[in-house]
Specification:
globular; 64% helix; mainly alpha; 101 residues
């Protein structure tokens, strides 16, 4: 199953209140877990509560999708590239927020 970055980016752009990636929430792929932690810290610190509220459910859906892919044979290898690509795309999308990546 190949995840398309554009679908993930759209989903991530609609996040709710950001929370740190806890061990039980970890995808198990360093690039994915790093992206989630960094992105959540960025939007948590830079967006208004209303803006944060408008983007949370999609992040949870993205995490669920990534976890499902990670559980498939060879899924973690596929996710590494997807998460790196997503991180680069989202870094550009939120550049105006001046987040540390």
């Amino acid at each position: 199953m190949r995840l398309k970055t554009s679908i993930l980016a759209a989903a991530i752009l609609s996040l709710a209140t950001p929370l740190p990636v806890l061990a039980q929430d970890a995808i198990g792929v360093a690039s994915c877990d790093t992206f989630l932690t960094t992105y959540q810290a960025c939007v948590g610190a830079k967006l208004s509560p209303d803006q944060r509220a408008s983007v949370g459910a999609a992040l949870e859906q993205t995490k669920a999708n990534w976890k499902a892919v990670a559980a498939e044979p060879g899924g973690k290898a596929k996710l590494d590239a997807t998460c790196k690509e997503t991180a680069e795309k989202m870094k550009k999308e939120v550049a105006a927020l001046n987040c540390a990546w």
